[in-house]
Amino acid sequence: MSNFFVSSIGKKFVMSVTGMFLILFLIVHLTVNSMIIIDDTGALFNKAAHFMATNPIIKIIEPILAIGVILHILFASLITLQNQLKRDINYPGLRRYKKYDTCASTNWQSRNMYILGTVILTFLVIHLINFFWKIRYTGSPLLEQPTILSSEIKNVYALVTTRFTTWWYVLIYVIGAVALGLHLYHGVWSAFQTLGWSNRKWRKILNVIGVIISVILGGGFAFIPLFVFIKSII
Amino acid sequence: MKLTLKIWRQNSPKEKGAFKTYILDDASQDMTFLEMLDALNEKLIAENEDPVAFDHDCREGICGSCGMIINGRPHGPGKEITTCQLNMKAFKDGDTIVIEPWRAKPFPVIKDLIVDRSAFDKIMEAGGFINTDVGSAPEANTYPIKTHKAEEAFEAASCIGCGACVAACKNSSAMLFVAAKVSQYALLPQGKVESLQRAWNMIMKMDELGFGSCTNTGACEAECPKGISLAHIARLNNEFIKSGFNKLFADKH
Ligand code: HEM
Ligand code: SF4
Ligand code: FES
User: Fold this and answer.
1) Could you report the per-residue pLDDT of B168-224, keeping only the tens digit for each?
2) Using a 6 Å cutoff on CB, does residue A73 contact ligand 1?
3) Domains along chain B?
4) Residue numbers in B near A190 (CB within 8 A)
5) B245, B188 in Cβ contact below 8 A?
6) pLDDT tens-place string over residues A114-159
C-alpha cells in the first residue's frame, strides 16, 4: 500500500483530497468574513471570529488544515517537478518546435496550477503574518479597542478594516483572490476527476459547479477588502 | 504548390538532432500528407541524400504507427484523424510545415520521425489482457450487456495505441492510453473480474517506464485520433484507488 502514495494516481489522490478539504475550509472562512459587510458595527464579525478562535471543533480542525496545506504543497511540488523531467532528453526544456510549444487545446489555468499555487502561497504567508499571527500571538492595539461586546472578545473587526485602508495591501488581496479563483476554475472538476467521480454527464455539471465555486470564492475574497477600502475613502 | 518543410533529423537515439529545412516545389493538394513525404523522399533519394525516416503501415487510420507532430499538433490539423488520414488540402501554397517526432522520455527517437513505442507494449504485458481461455467465438447472447456499457467499452477498444496522447501531454503521461485499455475490459463481464488488479499493474508499469502523471488538462482527449474521452481516465482513477484501498484495508489483491 505504501506504493499507493508513490504512484502517479496516489499522489494525485492526496492533491485532490487536500484540495477539497481546503475548499470546504475556504467556504466557512468566506462566510465568516462576509459578516464584515453585513454588519458595519463589527459586532457580528467579532462574535464570529471569537467563536472560530475558541470553538473546540475548530481547534481539532486547525492542525488537520495545516497538515492538509503542507501535503498539498509538498505533493504539488513533487508532481510538477517529476512531470517536467518526463520530457525528451534530446530536446530538453521544450516539448516541440518553440513557436508551437503550448497546447492550444487546453486552458491556461490547467497548465499553470503550480504558478497559481505559488501566488496563493505567497499571499497566504502575508495574510497569516498580518492577521492570524497578530490575533493569536503578538497582539495589536487595534485588537484591544473597545467593542460593544464582552471585554474578552478581541476587536478583530478594527484590525481588519484598518489594514484594508492601505491600497497596496488591498491589491495583494485582490491578486491572491484572483489566483485562487483561477486555481479552482480548473481545480474543482479536476479534484472529482482524480477520484474517479466523474463521467461524460457529470463532467459538464462539475465544470459548472467549478465555475460557480471559483467565482464565489475568488470574487468573494477580492470583494471584501475592496468594499472596506472603498468605504474608507468615500 | 510550393512548401517549406522544417523536419527534425536525428540519426540515432543517442545523437543530437536538429531541424533541417527542405523546399518541395511540386506538392499537390490531392496528395495525402504521407504521399507528400514520399514525394520529398523520392527527391532526396534522387539527390543522393538520406530520406526522412517515418513510420507507417496501414495508411487508413487503424495501425497507429504514423505518429508525428505537425505544426505543433500530434497527427496535425484536423479532428480525430491520424497523420495518414491527413489531406494536403489542409495546407496552401507557400506554407511552412514543421514536422517533429513524438517527444517524451519513454519514447526515444529511433531515427528522424520514428520513435520507439515499445513502452506501450510493456504496459500491455503488465495487464492488458484477460486470464481466461477465450476459446472460439461464443454465442452472441450468452452474456447480456447493457447497450451503453457495450458502446463505452467499444469506444475504449478503438484506441490504436498511436501515442498521440503522450505526445500531446505536457507531462508525457500515458493515462489516456492506459484508461482506454482498462475501460475496454472493466465494463464487460469477462474483463471485470481482474479489473482492479489490472488497473494497479498497468499504472505501476506506466510509472516505472517514466511516463508522467495526469493533470486533467485534456490535451490528450483533444488530439486523440479516436476521440477517446477523459471519462475513461475517471474510470481508471476509480479502479486504481479502489485497488489501493483493497490492498490496505481488505487484504485483497
Ligand atoms: C488554499 C488554497 C488552495 C486550494 C483550495 C487548492 C485546491 C486545489 C484543488 C481542488 C486541486 C485539484 C486537485 C486535483 O487535480 O485532483 C488543486 C491542484 C493543484 N494545486 Fe492547489 N489549492 C490551494 C493551494 C495551492 C498551493 C499553495 C499550491 C502550491 C504551491 C498548489 C498547487 C497545486 C497544483 C500544482 C495542483 C495541480 C496538481 C496536478 O494536477 O498535477 N495549490 N488545488
Ligand atoms: S488513447 Fe487515443 S491518442 Fe492515446 S494511444 Fe489510444 S488512440 Fe492514440
Ligand atoms: S499508417 Fe496506420 S494509422 Fe496511419
Assistant:
1) 999 999 999 999 999 999 999 889 999 999 999 999 999 999 999 999 999 999 999
2) yes
3) 3-111 (3.10.20.30), 117-252 (1.10.1060.10)
4) 215-216
5) no
6) 999 999 999 999 999 999 999 988 988 898 887 777 777 889 999 9
Give the Cα separation of B206 and B220 in Å (integer): 16
**CA-to-CA dists, residue A228 to A35, A126, B211, angstroms:** 12, 18, 49
Across the range A175-194, mean pLDDT stands at 98
For each of the domains in chain A, give its residue range(s) and CATH number, in order of start: 2-233 (1.20.1300.10)
B56 C-alpha to ligand 3 centroid (Å): 5
Amino acid present at A90: N
Distance from the alpha carbon of residue A19 to the mean position of ligand 1, in angstroms: 6
Of the candidates A151, A124, A114, A102, the one whose C-alpha atom is nearest the C-alpha of residue A15 is A114
Alpha-carbon gap: B216 to the closest alpha carbon of chain A (Å)? 6
Crossing angle of helices A56-84 and A8-33, in 10° steps, is 140
Least CB–CB distance from A190: residue in B172, B216, B231: B216
Among residues B56, B16, B17, the alpha carbon closest in space to that of B8 is found at B17
At residue B195's C-alpha, the angle toward residues B102 and B165, to 5°, is: 15
A110 touching chain B per CB within 8 A: yes
CA distance A116 to chain B (A): 14
Give which of A50, A25, A36, A28 is closest to A160, Cα–Cα.
A36
Cell of B35: 504521399
pTM (two decimals): 0.95
